[in-house]
Every structure is written in structure tokens, then in C-alpha cells.
Write a structure and sequence with these properties.
Layout: H1 16-29, H2 37-50, E1 54-58, H3 63-71, E2 77-80, H4 87-94, E3 98-101, E4 104-105, E5 110-111, E6 124-128, H5 139-149, E7 152-156, E8 164-165, E9 168-169, E10 176-180, E11 193-197, H6 200-209, H7 231-262, E12 268-270, E13 277-278, E14 284-288, H8 290-293, H9 297-306, H10 337-345, E15 346-349, H11 357-368
Parallel strand pairs: 2-3, 2-6, 6-7, 7-10
Antiparallel strand pairs: 1-11, 4-5, 8-9, 8-13, 10-11, 12-14, 14-15
Helix pairs in contact: 1-7, 2-7, 3-4
The protein binds pyridoxal-5'-phosphate.
Amino acid sequence: MENKLITVTSPLLPNLDEFNEMLKQIWESKWITNNGSFHRQLEKELTAYLRVPFISLFTNGTLPLITALQALRITGEVITTPYSFVATTHALWWNGIKPVFVDVDPATGNLDPDKIEAAITPRTTAIMPVHVYGNPCDTKRIQEIADKYGLKIIYDAAHAFGVEVNGESLLNAGDLSTLSFHATKVFNTIEGGALVMRDEQTKKRIDYLKNFGFINEVTVVGPGINSKMDEMRSAYGLLNLKQADAAIEARHQVAIKYREALRNVEGITFFDDMPGVKHNYSYFPIFIDTEKYGMTRDELYFKMKEQNVLGRRYFYPLISTFSTYRGLESAAPENLPNAHKMADQVICLPMHHALNEEDIKRILELIIE
Ligand SMILES: *Cc1c(COP(=O)(O)O)cnc(C)c1O
């Protein structure tokens, strides 16, 4: 008998009857997009849930990155990480900005603050770090560097939904933070995303920019884009938000079991919870040391796949190796040894709210046997 397929992720879905109820309301109102009541309500509820001052909803997690760079008028060069999802760097490219890759710290997978200053040139205007896997960047050190050189900071916080450090939302760091609500993320609106900002003026400006730059019927104040979240997705998001805490706790329990079982497996390492951090358990990456483990990362990855257990080599290949970016000076592998090592060793294990004991046992047996 074929083994049941275990996927790397599985979307959190709202209760269908409740969703239908909300759809009925939308049908009755005939207000299906353009800052409707569910859109406004979701912004309000997310602001409270995430404990951030202001939020603006978007149609996905990539347009907030592109729009943030526009809103802050970022030009020239931006320092960023090669160890991320490719959208981070593409957002720079779409703004005509030159990405400058800096290596990561293997303890977190995030931009290494010790290496940022050496990459700053007169053309540098901003830093775009990523809280990879929801691991918080060293936001204090990065802010100090930005202040010293007069740079802006835009955090790609696509993985950091609900993450807090010492009781404060990680999303309050830097000038702006972006979120993704894609189906594969901890909290999803099917497709969706958001920008988090600190003041009302910036929120207004971002709201104009995501609506073509319109401030009223006849005035366009800038070259905006269209990235408004519609009412169906906003309603879906409102229902999923009610389940977010339980989904994160279910992920936490999976992480506990993975860590317990893998702690003493020779050649496998993973991240532990960090002191003072409320994690969201968005991913569970393990790193394979071929010599100690006795098998390469790819051998394990394909062995799992053969048994219908889908991991993901996330993030492999590195962004800096893609054809668009590999010609950049900062993309040279010698410049990014830690990022290359992580990319070559990583497998993200299946991680979602609906994994059961049997699934977890099967996954672990494949890795440990
Ligand atoms: C998912 C993701 C994005 C893009 O989000 P979409 O909603 O898929 O457009 C950007 N950055 C990172 C780090 C991501 O993981």
C-alpha cells in the first residue's frame, strides 16, 4: 500500500459554513473590494492581534516590498541577504535598485550585522533584512548601523507573523515591515500580505500608493500600484485569525517532538527557541552534516520523497546564484560562505497545524533509521 502523502505545509482553512455566511453578507452589500467593511475590520483586528500601531493590507507579500521601497524613495544600492525567498531581491530589482548581498549568521540564518558596514558605499540608501524562519534579526545592531550611516530599514517579515521579542512585536523594528499571507504561511488569506508602519501619516501614504496614488476621485499624488485586498479574502482572513493562536500552538507541539527526537542524532542540527522570543514555528529547518550523518542532504531529501514525505530545500539555491543576480560582485560565493553552507545543508521538514502523531513518527523514522 502506498504511504499517505505528507506535504511540507498545509493551509489553515476557515470553517466553510462561517465563510459562506460572510460571503452572503458580501453578496448582499455588493461591496466586493476597495476598502470594504471586512477589509477595514481585518486591518483593525490584525493591528490588535499583532500589537502594531498601523497596518495596510495588500494582495500578496511581494507588492508590500515593492511599495515600501517606493514609499521611502529608496534608490541606488540596498544591503540584503541571499538566504531568503527570491521575492526579497526581486523587489529591489523591480525598483531599479542594486542588491548588495551580505553573508548570514549561521546561528539564526539572518544577515550578519558584523558584515554590514563593510558593504556600505556612498550609493547605499537602505538595508533590507529578512527574519528568516521567523528567527528575529539583531534589530538593535542593525538600527545602530542604519542610524550611523543614515540608512532606512525595511524588514521582510514574511515569516515573522506574531513573533515577539521581550513582549514587543518584532514587526515594530525598522522603518517598515512587510508580511505575506500566502497559503503556505502561518496565517493565510489565500494570497495576501501587509505593510506594518509606525505612524498614521505613513499609513495614509501607503494606502494611496496601493490604490494607484488616488487620494480622492480626481487627485493622484504619486505613481501608485494596485494592491488592494478584496472583501472575500478579508473575510477569509478574519475567520483564520480566530484560529491563528491554536494553529501556532499545534506547530509548537510538532517542533517539541522533532527536537526531542533529533537532539542526539549525529550530523543533524536545528534551531532552538531563543531566550525572550515568542516564536511562531513557521518552519522547521534541519541542517545535514554529510560526514557525520553519513548521507548527503539531497540523498535524505529524495529518500523522504520516495516514501511520500515532502520536505523542502528552503532556501536552496541561494538567490545570489540565480541568473539575474549571479553577475553581481557581492554574489561571489567567497563573499557568502555561511549562506552557501546553509543552502547546501538545509531541509525544511513538514510543519503545519494538522500533522498527527503518526505522520510525525513516520517522518522521524525516515531521518533517524
Ligand atoms: C512568501 C515570501 C514572500 C512573498 O510573499 P508572497 O505573498 O508569496 O508574494 C516574500 N519574502 C519571503 C521571505 C517569503 O517567504
